[in-house]
Structures are given as C-alpha cells and as structure tokens.
C-alpha cells in the first residue's frame, strides 16, 4: 500500500508538471500579430524550442498514464488479494492455537480430578483401617467405601493418562505440522508480495526509460535550434526590411558672410533642412514614442479656437473606425488583409496607389509584392477560365450533361476580372520599373568612398533629434509614414498604463495628428500628465489614444500616481 501511494503521487506530479509545461509553451507560442517575426532565425529557434517542450510534456503525460495503468491499478488489486490471503492464514493460526489450548485445559482437568480421587481414596483407606480395630460392623462399611474410592481413583488415572497422551499428540502436531505449515504459507505470501514490488519498481524504471529517448531527442532538437540562430542574418533581414533607399545628405557648403553676395546654401544642407523642419513644426525622429503636438493657444475653450490656431498640432493621420470599416467592406480580396491589420493597429492603410509616399526601397518591395500577388490571381483566374471553357465544350458535345449557355455569365465575369487584373498588373509593373530605374540612377551617383552600411539604414537614423532631412514633399510624407509605423510598432509592444481618469468640460474636435476628439462630459483614461505645454495624453480604449488640451478637461489622478489633483 505504501509503494502504491508513492507511485500514485509520483504520477500526479508528472501529470501536473506536464500540464504546467504545456501551458507555458502555449503562453509563449508566437501569436498571429507577431507572424512577421517568423523570418528571423532566433524566432524560429524559439518556436522550435517551444514545440519540443510541448513534446516533452506529452512524454510526461504518457509516463504518468503508464504508471497509473501498469503499476498503480495492478498493485491495488494485488494488495486486496494479499490482504484476503493473510487473513485466511491468521484464522488458521488462531484455530490451531485454540485447539492446543483446549487440549491443555482438558489435560489439566483430568490431572486435578485424578489427584483429588487419589487423596480421597487414601483417606477412605485410613478410615477403614481405624474402624476395623474398633468395630467389626462398622469396618465392613468403611472397607466398602474405601474400595469405591480406589476404583474412582483408578478411573481418574486412566482418564488422566488418556488426556496426557492426547495432549502430547496434539502438541507435537501443533508445533511440528500445523504452525510450520501456516508460517510457510505466510512466508510464501510475503515473497510473492516482494516479487510484486520488485516487478512494479522495474516497470516504473522501464516506463521512464521508454520516454527518455524521446525526451533526449527533444533536447537534441533544442540544441540544434539554438545552434541554428544566425545573428548576422537576422540583422541583415532587419536592415533589408527597414532600409529606405534615400541618399544621405550632402556636405554643408561654406557660407561667406564677409562677402556682399547673397549666401547660398546647398539644397541638401542640414541647416536648410533644419529650418524647413521647424517651419513644418515636426521632428522626424523614428525612436520617439509619440509625436506630441505643440501647446494650444491661450484662447477661450472652443473647438475652432484650438483646431484653427496656427500653433495647433499637425493633421492627425489616424482615420475614424467607420472609415476603416467602409474600406474593409468595399476593398477587394487582396487588400482586405491590409484593412484588417489597419483596424487592429489603429492606422490607416490608405495611400497613393503607386506607393509614392513610401521610401524608394520600401516602395519597390511593396510594388514587387503587389505584382507577385496579382500574377498569382491572374494565374488562378486563367485556370478557372480554362476549366469553364473545357466544361462548355463538354456540354456542347453532350447536351444531356448540362446547358452550355449557363456558363456564359461566369465566363464573362472571369474575363472582366482578368482584364482588370492585367490592367492593374501593367500599372504596377510600370511603377516598379520607375522605382528600379530611380534606384539604379541613385546608386550610380553615389560616391565610392561612402560607408556601405549607411546605404542600408533609414536616412532618419543619420540625423540628430534636433533636425530633419527632407528633399521634397514626398520625402517628408515618407518620414511621417515611417515615424507613424515606428510609433505603431512600439504601441503594439506594450501600451502605457493608465494613471488616472479625466472628464471633458468642453467638446473638442481632434482633427489634427496626435489629438483625440471628445464630447462634453466624456470620461477618458489619463496616460500622461501635462508636461507644461498645455496638452494631456488620454486614451478612450486600447485603439484610440491622443492628446487633448488640458484646459478642456478635469483630471483625477490615482492616489498611487500622484494623489487626487484637479485641472480646471
């Protein structure tokens, strides 16, 4: 019973361990939102480690099942059998003990009766001898009594001898036959019990040894996965994904203030671009978490006062959720995935059809991917067209199989779809050829002495947080798009925690970038306090977040953050 309990508890531990390992593997398994990371070797290695860890959990569950079925159940059945057998042997031993005790009591009774009769016969004889000397008449009667006592003593002696012989015989049988047989049976039972424990221990070791090769294979697979990580390849893939294709800015020309001539600055001058960036009122630095708008003007609370001010924040790029839903419902099958991703991440997937708002390298990748997808759709449409034509030919040859004219609407629909796809393919191929030629011309103009690694990095990485680099309006749009993309990537990682709540005192139309619209009396979550610039960062839900004027709201901070404060 003790070993059975031990094996059962061990099986429960193995099962609990397997469950916890399985839950851990499921918890850290890559989500769909991180499927783009599957291209990196370290992500693949981690996913393989989780799969092998799940396989280890399966083996642990199999081990627990084998311990329960092969050992615990069998030992429980054998335990009941051994208990019944031991009870039988103990009952036989008690019966033998009771028999020898009964024989001993009978012997003692015969012995005491014989002793009593002998003493009575001896007294009767003395009385008889004394009476003979005194009177002859009384002597006859005394002699007759003495003879009777002697006969009774003789019978008691015979009973005593018989009882003594019977007890000696029973005692010999008890100690030489019955008890040794009972002990031998108990010993055999104990040996069989120990054999069962031995078999159970052996089965337990064999059950664990059976899963060890699989577990060892899982560990080997984990080692292979760790060895497959290639840091250089992963970093190159990151560079390949995010490189822009822009040329770095040119050298800053000397400005001769001593001359009376009008100073000229290079078009690619950093100072000129910095002044241009100040005019646009926006810093294009990719690692800023949020592009915080400038402080609102000190005007009366009104929606137009803040939104129409020259110091108001730049236009807000996020579109309303209704607009994104309309895009999803009206888009084709090829762009629905992008619309769904836009709905999830809270950014608009809209943009120019030729992707000119993207950097050259990113635009080339986007157009190339679009060309590949359209080519695949064209191939599928052609295969469907060929199948319909073959079916129409069969119907024309065998009218009983179907009506050939019923296929005409479907053929016409496939034909229109092919024409539309081919036209779209031609447009995208033209745009792709333009990008390729632009990139080739740009690479030919680069100086051979430039550092090659700068060609694979976004241009904004070569700038300081105090300035920006823009050559034209499309480049500025590119930077805004890339900055927004960086912001969304950081937002997907971990949203800022709420530090309190606020209630809007006036309505506010957040039509600019970074701002959030609100109605009067609406309750929002406070994410970031006013830093002295007149704006407070709030959140309506996990998707809608932005800045609102501090003068438009009444803020209630949590006691754990800064105590209860009120902004009016």
Helix content: 55-70%
Q: Class by helix and strand content?
A: mainly alpha
Spatial order of strands in the largest sheet? 4-3-2-1-5
Identify the overall geometry.
elongated
- How many beta-strand runs? 5
The CATH superfamily title of the domain at 1-234: Arfaptin homology (AH) domain/BAR domain
Task: Provide the gyration radius in Å.
Answer: 52 Å
* CATH topology label of the domain at 1-234: Substrate Binding Domain Of Dnak, Chain:A, Domain 2
Task: Give a structural overview.
With 568 residues, the protein is mainly α. Among the domains are: 1-234, Up-down Bundle (Substrate Binding Domain Of Dnak, Chain:A, Domain 2); 360-440; 500-557, SH3 Domains (SH3 type barrels, Roll). Helices cover 63% and strands 5% of the residues. The protein has helices spanning 2-27, 41-134, 136-227, 231-242, 270-280, 303-307, 321-330, 336-345, 360-397, 408-445, 473-493; strands at 500-504, 523-528, 535-539, 545-549, 553-557. α1 (2-27) packs antiparallel against α2 (41-134), α2 (41-134) packs antiparallel against α3 and α7 runs antiparallel to α8. The two termini are 75 Å apart. It is found in: Cell membrane; Cytoplasm, Cell cortex; Cytoplasm, Cytoskeleton. It comes from Echeneis naucrates. This is Formin binding protein 1a.
